[in-house]
Amino acid sequence: QWDFIRWRGAVVSAIRGKRGQAFLKEMLAAMDALPEKKLIKEELQDPYDDGAVCALGAVGKARGLDMSKLDPEDIESVAAFFEIPRALAAEVVYMNDEGLFFRMDADLRYRKMREWIEKLISGGKP
Predict the structure, then answer these.
(1) pTM of the predicted model as reported, rounded to 2 decimal places
(2) Which phi-psi region, left, alpha or beta, contains residue 75 (left: φ > 0; alpha: ψ -120 to 50)?
(3) In which band, very low, low, confident or very high, does the pLDDT at 102 lie, cut at 50, 70 and 90?
(4) Coil, strand or helix at 2
(5) d(Cα 14, Cα 40) in Å, to the nearest integer?
(6) Residues facing residue 53 across a β-bridge
(7) CA-CA 20 to 30 A from 57: which of 4, 74, 111, 114?
(8) Distance (Å, rounded) from C-alpha 71 to C-alpha 26?
């Protein structure tokens, strides 16, 4: 039980921190800049469709980063790649891929992730 409590504390701290808030704002802007308001799951970017990305992939795309060699399941590498805390990277990946939106299509996933990020930026609980 304590491991879970400590983990959730790390997530809350990462989200509410200065760096976490800046990243969430950047992610929101990157998602808004997507030509198609859709998010994929389980990949940072679709290798067959250059425009299809997940929420983290939207940031990578906006930054002009090559994400092709990054394993989206290696949270340590993903966090280092985006220069964010591990807990924040894991939470974004979880919410994008499984969270409350597990069985949603790409359009609805985009809208729900956008709502979740807006809530976190305005001080809501993760």
Answers:
(1) 0.90
(2) alpha
(3) low
(4) helix
(5) 24
(6) 45
(7) 4
(8) 22
What is the reported pLDDT for 116?
A: 94
CA dihedral (122, 108, 98, 42) positive or negative: negative
Neighbours of 50 (CB within 10 A): 9
Distance CA 126, CA 16 (A): 9
DSSP per residue over 33-97, as a string?
T-SS----SSSSEETTEEEEE-HHHHHHHHHT---TT--TT-HHHHHHHHT--HHHHHHHHHHHH
- Asked whether the beta carbons of 39 and 55 are under 8 A apart, the reply is yes
The encoded tokens of residue 13 equal: 């701290």
68 near 78, Cβ under 8 Å? Answer: no
Q: What whole-number distance in Å separates Cα of residue 43 and Cα of residue 17?
A: 26
